[in-house]
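Workshop exercise sheet. Pairs work together: one partner reads the sequence aloud, the other fills in the structure field after running the prediction. Swap roles for the next sheet.
Pair: D.N. / O.F.
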Amino acid sequence: MSKGGDKSLWDTAIDEAKLAEEDEAKASEEACVLFVGSKNAGKTSIILRFLDRDEAPKPTTALEYTFGRRARGHNIAKDVGHIWELGGGTWLTKLMDIPINTDTILYTSMIIVLDLSLPNELWFTMEKLLNAARTQVDAVVAATNNIDPEIKIKLKKRAWERLGQDHPDKDMIDPFLIPLCIIGSKYDLFQDFDSEKRKTVCKTLRFVAHTHGASLQFSSTKQEALINRSRNLISHFVFGTPMGKTMQADHNKPLLIPAGLDLLQQIGTPPLPDDELGMGLARTPMDLWKQAFTSIFPQENTNNPAMVDDPAKDIQYAEGTVDSMRIQKNEELERYRRLCERRAKDARQQAMNEGLVY
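Structure field:
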């Protein structure tokens, strides 16, 4: 029998059962991670290594889905992690609305994979994908607001819990509303760059990641230790395993900076001459870093549909009947195009003969 404020054994058992049910419900939540990034940056390879699939990566067509499972303690049930990969670089960002929606927003994370070996495409790709993702997240929050008016407050609270409510740079950070990590891929190639160029890339990515409340790490499919880092990151996002607090910020080594551990004071200033830091068209610190980075690495526009591989020509999607019909239609289209050209030429010649065109 309980006395005063003491609980009875029965009450305690009921409370523990409720907590167990809540933990079970939380654990059964199926997390989702969306991979986006530079074309041919190695997103598929990173996913395959995480899933322990020994197979050659194939080009990603549009948006592809897979999943991973993990045993949950001694239970028969398993945790399921949904993994989406957006192909095409920056060209297919509208497809983000499939994995990031009102049903998944509370347990979706995003990983941006950037090719470190192509710094002349890095800022454009990163900026385009970050803006597209933020637009989609904001749209989903607005749509969810009718159902859950507290949704944005919940996401903000979670974001600051990841970073630390009392972070010294709080006034300079606008945290992404869903967990975010930037992975710099192909470190095996990047490590041979000139030291000053490596330093510029590292400092810039640190600033962008830090001010977005994101984690940052460098990876390479050629180095097992870096592969394990990526595995641990994905496991944290899809299964909730501990992230770890190890930090590596030396630009001469592969970066590893968990969200909230960096400091603007340690990152330093943009690589611009002192007399240019207060000049130019930069209106925000981000603009200033962009100005500095793009002055060293002029950017190439990768948002070009012509740069995306045509899946109809990919042998992995070969379909005899369909392919033969496509060839026939292509030949018909080519004949029609030539006919139109010939008619246009004849019409022009006739007009010239009649003195209507000179």
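Discussion prompt: The chain is about 45% helix and 10% strand. What would you look at next?
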